[in-house]
């Protein structure tokens, strides 16, 4: 897929490319940090409850688990982890 960038002011293509590259690099660093943060949270729950996050999600979604706060926190952390993984995948596919 191609993407068009419209430059509305008098900046060179090189200047605009450098700004976009910098913004993407920063976004990637933030995404890596967030992914690691949510991975650590999930790992702590996996250790505590002795099950993988994938199995937990299946059991949570099917209603097999109770309503303890930990499970809602784990669910949010796993969803956060999955979101940041997807964002990193998108960022890795951008070439300027």
Account of the 3D structure:
The structure is a single chain. With 96 residues, this protein is mostly helical. It has a domain at 35-96. The protein is built from three helices and no strands. The radius of gyration is 19 Å and the shape is elongated. The relative contact order is 0.14.
Topology, element by element:
Blueprint: H1 13-49, H2 53-61, H3 69-92
Helix pairs in contact: 1-3, 2-3
Distinctive features:
elongated, 3 helices, single chain, 73% helix, 96 residues, mainly alpha
Strand residue content: under 5%
For the report, how would you describe the main beta sheet? Answer: none
N- to C-terminal distance: 12 Å
DSSP, total strands: 0
- Give the structural class: mainly alpha
Rg over C-alpha atoms, rounded to the nearest angstrom: 19 Å
- Order of SSEs, N→C? HHH
Tell me the helix content. Answer: over 70%
Low-confidence sequence ranges: none
Q: What do the pLDDT scores average to?
A: 95
Oligomer type: single chain
- Give the overall silhouette: elongated
Counting DSSP H or I runs of 4 or more residues, the number of helices is 3
Task: Give a concise summary.
The chain has helices at residues 13-49, 53-61, 69-92.
